[in-house]
């Protein structure tokens, strides 16, 4: 309960901080609309030339885009801000400000993961949900309870996998503060807006098992189309749990190797 109350306070403090800069609200809306427009336009242009690519049609690919936008919005809402403050450009580890963070009487992983919230990302979340609803409606078939349940489980597993990857990259910064690992990941994550099956064999392998961004978005979309098997979903959940445990271990190991800026 203590940690839940702290999350509430973190959310309130972040809201007050963002409300003090109202111009950022309009800039965020413009950026969100441009991001949505370019994403939808790319899909529409592609399927204006072909009807299907590796089993994916316009409706299913739009559903995947909706999942990608939702996951990206959740990352911007509460996963990314705190970890970027820790390990991003001019982050606490690089500047030495992490000394003060490390002294707080809290679980450090919990604190850096939930201390900052970017409320403007709720607009991105609404846009992603709208694209997803439109895509499902365009499919012309009613979703079963099994499909909805599998979608929710796959989406949770995808978000947990994304968090594990970002936490692991943040942990690596303890050893190499000059390397912006999350920036490297951002370029790879862009590939998650398209089905992992459309990529060449070696790249598909990388996006599935090495840096599994394909699992994050492709599997939830497959659940909506009925193409996701129970065994694949179970594997995705297991992968998310294993990656989370490994990332947490890596982060804690990095904490023990952190050299104070004052030392």
How much β-strand is present in the residues? Answer: under 5%
Structural class: mainly alpha
Number of helical runs? Answer: 12
Taking all residues together, what is the mean pLDDT?
Answer: 89
Total beta strand runs: 0
Distance between the termini: 36 Å
The biggest sheet amounts to: none
Low-confidence stretches: none
Radius of gyration over all CA atoms, rounded: 19 Å
What does this structure look like?
This protein is mainly alpha-helical. Helices cover 75% and strands 0% of the residues. The protein is globular. The mean pLDDT is 89.
Short overview:
By secondary structure, the protein is mainly alpha-helical. It is 75% helix and 0% strand.
Keywords for this entry:
mainly alpha, 75% helix, 263 residues, 12 helices, 0% strand
List strands and helices in order, with pairings:
Layout (H helix, E strand, L loop, with lengths): L1 H18 L3 H25 L10 H30 L4 H4 L2 H5 L5 H7 L6 H19 L5 H28 L8 H9 L11 H10 L2 H13 L4 H28 L6
Helix pairs in contact: 2-3, 2-7, 3-6, 3-7, 3-8, 3-11, 8-11, 8-12
């Amino acid at each position: 309960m203590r940690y839940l109350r702290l999350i509430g306070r973190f959310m309130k403090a972040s809201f007050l901080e963002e409300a003090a800069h109202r111009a950022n609200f309009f800039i965020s809306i413009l950026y969100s609309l441009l991001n949505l427009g370019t994403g939808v336009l790319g899909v529409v242009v592609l399927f204006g030339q072909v009807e299907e690519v590796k089993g994916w049609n316009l409706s299913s690919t739009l559903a995947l885009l909706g999942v990608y936008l939702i996951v990206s919005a959740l990352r911007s809402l509460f996963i990314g801000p705190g970890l970027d403050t820790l390990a991003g450009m001019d982050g606490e580890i690089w500047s030495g400000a992490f000394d003060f963070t490390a002294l707080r009487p809290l679980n450090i992983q919990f604190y850096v993961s939930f201390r900052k919230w970017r409320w403007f990302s709720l607009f991105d979340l609404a846009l992603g949900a709208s694209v997803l609803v439109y895509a499902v409606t365009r499919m012309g078939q009613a979703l079963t309870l099994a499909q909805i349940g599998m979608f929710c489980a796959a989406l949770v597993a995808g978000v947990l996998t994304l968090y594990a990857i970002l936490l692991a990259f943040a942990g690596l910064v303890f050893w190499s503060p000059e390397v912006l690992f999350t920036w490297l990941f951002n370029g790879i994550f862009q590939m998650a807006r398209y089905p992992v099956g459309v990529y060449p064999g070696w790249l598909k392998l990388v996006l599935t098992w090495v840096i599994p961004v394909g699992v994050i978005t492709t599997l939830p979309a497959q659940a909506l189309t009925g193409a996701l098997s129970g065994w694949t979903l179970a594997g995705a959940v297991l992968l998310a749990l294993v990656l989370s445990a490994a990332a947490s271990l890596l982060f804690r190991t990095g904490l023990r190797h952190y050299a104070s800026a004052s030392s």
